[in-house]
Design a protein that fits this description.
The protein is an alpha+beta fold. Helices cover about 30% and strands about 25% of the residues. Strands 1, 2, 3, 4, 5, 6 and 7 form a 7-stranded mixed beta sheet that branches. The longest helix has 22 residues, at about 15-40.
Length: about 140
């Protein structure tokens, strides 16, 4: 069985150069985290307790994409999860904070496993999103 590739396309963030650079770095580290998660058993989540966030890989069109959801009151909000590539509207500081969390996770690799991995497969298609629709309307 072929192992799906990690999608390495990084959509433009559509803001100033410094924010774009932070976005690019977040995705570079995210791709490393996605590689690690893809090698783990299905249903494995990267647990970033300090950020109240989890990450996992979602398989869309034979490629893995990094997805994330927040943790609130000890519950993982998978139903409100999003692909990393679709997280728009964050400041440079927030993007750097997420990147630092993923960087720390790559060292510690704290994980948890959910009982039903199909819950993590929230997308069968890539969401259609236009930055200009959000910021210029």
């Amino acid at each position: 069985m072929l192992t799906p590739n990690i999608n390495t396309d990084i959509p433009a963030y559509g803001v100033d150069d410094l924010t774009e650079q932070s976005w690019q770095w977040l995705h570079a580290v995210g791709q490393l985290a996605a590689q690690e998660l893809a090698a783990m058993p299905k249903g494995t989540l990267a647990l970033l307790e300090a950020q109240d966030r989890v990450y996992w890989v979602a398989l869309i069109h034979d490629e893995y994409y990094l997805a994330t959801a927040t943790i609130f009151d000890g519950e993982i909000n998978i139903e409100h999860g999003a692909l990393l590539r679709d997280l728009y509207g964050f400041s440079i500081e927030e993007l750097n904070f997420m990147r630092e969390g993923l960087t720390d996770w790559l060292t510690a690799q704290t994980t948890l496993k959910i009982a039903e991995p199909r819950q993590l497969q929230r997308w069968s298609e890539l969401p259609v999103h236009s930055v200009s629709d959000d910021f210029h309307s």
